[in-house]
């Protein structure tokens, strides 16, 4: 764009400022709350649609996505994908958002009827879209690449060194809590019975495990702490001098002891292995 402007081959850009925009968030869970917090810092006016009205926030609640779209400049999708939310953004919602509206999807591609979105973008029925996920990943409709009012990213926002370290710490904290018979940092708190096959079976097993060990059952109280806060809580847990969780240290020690035993039992094999390397 800079090169095109220098060569005077780029049309004048008319940009929009974020401050003051009405932003509707679909799915006000832990991720949705983090999005809302950041948008508030830019002076955006937040409203939301979710499975249930949140008693802990003051944002206006809209009982339907169409109602939310009619009041917003931007829709941000942060909800899970299931049978109820598949194609939750359809032509009716897009038309309700209007010609100056924008859709940002950081949830799952199937939340949007992608064919209708492409059609509405081509017809000028919506202002633009920012898409991090797609309905048939990794395939992306070719038309989207040719639109100046669409921003695409490859569903790779988590691929940073910091996020991988956070994942390891969170997994370690959950393992430590599990083997200490303590509540998990990130327990399974809700299950959609529409999840198909083996995935549902695994989820139900985890749900039953949580109920047995930690009393998390049908009442399924809402966890109001964000993932970030829970991750930070895990970080504050006692660590050893190497900065590792005690449970992981134990597992590492067990592995080292087992390897030592194997070497003692088979010293010849070890020497052969050393020669090969």
In short:
The protein has 277 residues and is an alpha/beta fold.
Output the CATH class name of the largest domain.
Alpha Beta
In CATH, the architecture of the largest domain is 3-Layer(aba) Sandwich
With helices defined by DSSP (H or I, 4 residues minimum), what is the helix count? Answer: 11
How many domains? The number is 2
Q: What are the low-pLDDT stretches, counting only 5+ consecutive residues below 50?
A: 191-206, 209-227, 238-244
Strand sequence of the main sheet, in spatial order? 2-1-3-4-5-6
CATH superfamily of the largest domain: NAD(P)-binding Rossmann-like Domain
Largest sheet: 6 strands, parallel
The tally of strands reads 6
* End-to-end CA span: 52 Å
CATH topology of the largest domain: Rossmann fold
Tell the overall outline.
elongated
What is the structural class?
alpha/beta
Roughly how much helix do the residues carry, as a percent range? 40-55%
The H/E string reads HEHEHEHEHEHEHHHHH
Radius of gyration: 24 Å
**Whole-number average pLDDT?**
78
SS strand fraction? 5-15%
């Amino acid at each position: 764009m800079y090169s095109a402007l220098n060569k005077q081959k780029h049309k004048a850009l008319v940009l929009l400022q974020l401050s003051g925009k009405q932003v509707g968030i679909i799915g006000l869970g832990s991720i949705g709350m983090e999005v809302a917090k950041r948008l508030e810092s830019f002076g955006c006016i937040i409203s939301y649609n979710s499975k249930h009205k949140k008693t802990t926030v003051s944002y206006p609640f809209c009982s339907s996505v169409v109602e939310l779209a009619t009041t917003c400049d931007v829709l941000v999708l942060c909800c899970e994908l299931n049978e109820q939310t598949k194609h939750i953004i359809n032509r009716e919602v897009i038309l309700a958002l209007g010609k100056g509206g924008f859709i940002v999807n950081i949830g799952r591609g199937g939340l949007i009827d992608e064919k209708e979105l492409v059609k509405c973008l081509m017809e000028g029925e919506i202002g633009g879209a920012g898409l991090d996920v797609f309905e048939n990943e990794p395939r992306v409709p070719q038309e989207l690449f040719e639109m100046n009012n669409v921003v695409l990213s490859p569903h790779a926002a988590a691929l940073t060194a910091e996020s991988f370290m956070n994942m390891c710490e969170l997994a370690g904290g959950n393992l430590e809590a599990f083997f200490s018979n303590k509540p998990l940092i990130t327990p399974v708190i809700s299950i959609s019975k529409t999840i198909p096959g083996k995935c549902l079976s695994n989820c139900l097993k985890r749900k039953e495990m949580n109920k047995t060990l930690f009393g998390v059952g049908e009442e399924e109280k809402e966890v109001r702490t964000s993932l970030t806060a829970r991750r930070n809580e895990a970080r504050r847990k006692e660590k050893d001098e190497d900065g590792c969780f005690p449970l992981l240290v134990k597992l590492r020690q067990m592995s080292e002891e087992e390897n030592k035993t194997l070497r003692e039992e088979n010293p010849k094999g070890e020497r052969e292995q050393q020669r090969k390397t």
